[in-house]
Amino acid sequence: MGDFHQNGVITTLHNLSNRPLAELEYELEVFSKMRPMTLILPSLYSELQGPALPNIIKELSQVPYLSQIVIGLDRANEAEYRHAREFFSELPQHHRILWNDGPRLRAIDERLQSQGLAPTEAGKGRNVWYCLGYTLASRKSQAIALHDCDILTYKREMLARLIYPVANPGFNYQFCKGYYARVADGKINGRVCRLMVTPLLRALKKVLPQSEYLDYLDSYRYPLAGEFSFRTEAVNDLRIPSDWGLEIGILSEMFRNNATNRLCQVDIADNYDHKHQDLSADNAEAGLSKMSIDIAKAIFRKLATNGVVLSSETFRTIKASYFRIALDFVETYRNDALINGLTLDIHKEEQAVELFARNIKAAGEYFLDNPMETPFIPSWNRVRSAQPNILEELKEAVEADTREFMNQAG
């Protein structure tokens, strides 16, 4: 059970009473009459064969308030797309699968690519972007939730708590971020958030002039959570990063487009676990190493757009400050683990800190060498300005795939 403390500049909605799920879902059913809701599931085909997604689908099949579920399917050939149709067919809600590697969606992507209006690299950001475009085209929702497909501890109350703040017509929130404790198998997880993001934000606040943006990011209890929700109108101007900076990038966009009193975070789970990335200390293009570099670059880019001047000397100071703060956090988490009967390997924690410190400096150097890089995918408002019929074409491509392969699953 969480406390009721409010910290930072956004609202925190706690789990103070373990309210019965039936009550939440009843209210959401009432809200859905006025504010229809969609769930987006960005998925790799390989996740259909993993341990998490079958249980997620089983839980979602009991959810009564969703107008539709939009599934973005990546890395799937035709046979795998057919299998995916069978796999998701147990969902009783209206649902559509975006076969992102199919010929129809590839044709749309290639046309947008030729105009510089499409994602430049594959990944979750690209998947989410197309799912949001389809959701806008379908006109079936006024509130959207999104969560990952690798949550091993998934319960449908996660979704209920995640979407409630933007679905409740009595609330004024445009965006909601889920948070939770990353504790599983007797240890504290979430290394990138614990040992990189939070210490980096504290170091930046110490080194740089006072920044509303940094105060804002530091208000989120788990800024890297892949679970968030928003009102559908917030999607039109949303620019989505295509790399591991997705979550930080979306938080930055919400800060750019909204007053902070329209943003919130909500406690969605007491127990949360999903698949873990390798540290990949010897490969800056993989695992947590690449993730940490992309996240740092996303923060540095946003600071620069806010008028902060960054230099090699600045990044050396940031690295030194980060390193000291992060090592202090290792001691903090060690003590937190011990009082809760958990284990924490100090050696591995400090190895991660050393890697993240190097990567923060590397990200700073990359930023200085590439100051004009624009990793954001254009907003759908911009794409529609250049291609007025694009959303209708995207919707029809998905519907055509659905019709062609109907009754051909398996």
Automatic annotation (TrEMBL):
GO terms for molecular function: transferase activity. Gene3D superfamilies: Spore Coat Polysaccharide Biosynthesis Protein SpsA, Chain A. This is Glycosyl transferase. It comes from the Bacteria. Keywords: Transferase. InterPro entries: Nucleotide-diphossugar_trans (IPR029044).
